[in-house]
Amino acid sequence: MNVRYTIGKNEYKRMTTDELRNAFLVDLFETGKLNLLYCEVERAITGAAVPSLGKPLVLEAGKELASDYFCQRREVGVLNIGGAGTVTVDGTEYAMDNLDGLYIGRGAKEISFQTVEADCVGAQSSARFYLISYPAHTDYPTMQAKKADANAIELGTVEDANKRTIYQYIHENGIKSCQLVMGFTALEPGSVWNTMPCHTHERRTEVYLYFGLDEDSRVFHMMGPSNETRHLVVGNEQAVISPMWSIHSGCGTQAYQFCWGMGGENQRFDDMDHIAIKDLK
Q1: Where do runs of H (alpha helix) occur along the chain?
Q2: Once rounded to an integer, what is the mean pLDDT over residues 82-90?
Q3: Which residues contact 47 (CB under 8 A, 6 or more apart)?
Q4: Using one digit for the tens of pLDDT, what is the confidence trace for 113-136?
Q5: Which fold has domain 2-279?
Q6: Which residue ranges make up each domain of the chain?
Q7: First-to-final CA distance of the chain
Q8: 3-state secondary structure of 148
């Protein structure tokens, strides 16, 4: 497990492109491996498991958590952005198709990830599990989140190039959790803007995982305080850590999808401090 420490908004002002990328951009997906990043911001852990066929990957605590098992004091959200797979939690197997999600509650001891496609050839046919985890002080049952069961919200317009559907999985009116809120957003073809007009939420931090991009496409992820913004150029299956002081918007060279996960003081999806486009600098 790698560790990433907090960068404040005053330090951020003086950072080069490489320094910004090293601080906020995250690469997680690697065939045959389970990679984790421990972030000092809200003590979030984000990760990815890409199991090869017949070789399950086990989620372990590591010395960074000083616990007997990963979910001893944590909860986890999972989204499969790849081929068919399974997640096994304490002996119960959950079949995970593309864009299926899973909430794993505090107290789950044995967690493993597996690819199940019989004709799996290469990384694109493998299950590709994205993980985000926050500390939890209470228990909620492990529950699966099928795309068909998500709370789907259609927003935006073609004229504003931001027509999209938000799929809410783990939230206050859906799958219950201690503090984790998680889902994903899918932009319609021809739409490229997400979360614009933008916002911050001082009471929570957020991680965006961008996916559904081809090899040559990118998203220009906007970050920073509203009066001093920067951007990161983000490729497919890269994530961005968004501290509470930072906006988190993006504009792509094509339509794309992104998984959003939040943790902090509350679980209200609409708890946002909105910023008018004219006030951005």
Answers
A1: 9-12, 17-24
A2: 95
A3: 28, 34, 35, 36, 37, 130, 131, 132, 133
A4: 999 975 545 445 789 999 999 999
A5: Jelly Rolls (2.60.120)
A6: 2-279
A7: 36
A8: helix
